[in-house]
Specification:
Length: 226
């Protein structure tokens, strides 16, 4: 079953490559871009729900902090008040996790397919990259992977998150360690896989910008709980 999913992704990539051949510009790099757009469109409802849920959770963080301060000597009452706040604003605290869990198998299968993919020689180069089946010899792809990961993490964090002392320990992990780690790992990955990660992150950035521009909860809506 799992291998069938991986093989299916390979076949789609082959089809998209043949499409670029028909267009007169044979390019696996362009085929990977088309594949990334297709995956993004398929996962759009889930990722959109996840981003919106995270945004709404960030918007009510000041009120949650207020409740925790008010009932710091009574954790049980604080938890009840927070659950009431969630119900008041129709927020499911697990809603941001479920879409991600559903997406993960697809993304992992995609990664495996790109790692195992056998490229034909025609169209296997991409700009400065000699061959997409090999790691980037100039290390430009790993740097771009790290930068794209950093920007996506930065944009997904609300300003209140970035300034929150309680998150001071996790902030370096999210903003700095993970992009560096992923960039370092991609040094040995096939350049085609790194290219996919860059395209996927850029599309994710655009989607996050659109979500962030949506109106926030009104101040009165996030106001006090009874």
């Amino acid at each position: 079953m799992w291998q069938a999913l991986v093989d299916g992704v390979k076949e789609i990539l082959k089809f998209l490559y043949e499409l670029t051949v028909t267009m007169g510009i044979p390019s696996y790099g362009l085929a990977i871009l088309f594949l990334t757009i297709l995956i993004k469109l398929l996962l759009y409802p889930l990722s959109q729900k996840q981003m919106k849920s995270m945004k709404r959770m960030q918007e009510i963080q000041p009120k949650i902090k207020e409740i925790q301060e008010k009932y710091k000597k009574n954790p049980e009452k604080a938890n009840r008040a927070i659950m009431e706040l969630y119900q008041q604003h129709k927020i499911n605290p697990l809603a941001g996790c479920l879409p991600l869990l559903i997406q993960m198998p697809v993304l992992i299968a995609l990664f495996q397919a790109l790692q195992q993919f056998q490229y034909a020689d025609l169209g296997s180069s991409f700009f400065w990259i000699p061959h997409l089946k090999n790691p980037d010899p100039y290390f430009i792809v790993p740097v771009l992977v790290g930068c794209a990961t950093y920007l996506q993490s930065k944009l997904s964090m609300a300003k209140s998150d970035q300034d929150n002392p309680q998150l001071a320990a996790t902030k370096p992990m999210m903003l700095y360690f993970m992009p560096i780690f992923i960039g370092f790992m991609s040094v040995k990955f096939p350049a085609g896989l790194g290219l996919y990660w860059i395209f996927f992150s850029v599309l994710g950035l655009l989607q996050q910008v659109l979500v962030n521009r949506q109106p926030a909860l009104e101040e009165g809506e996030v106001g006090g709980s009874k």
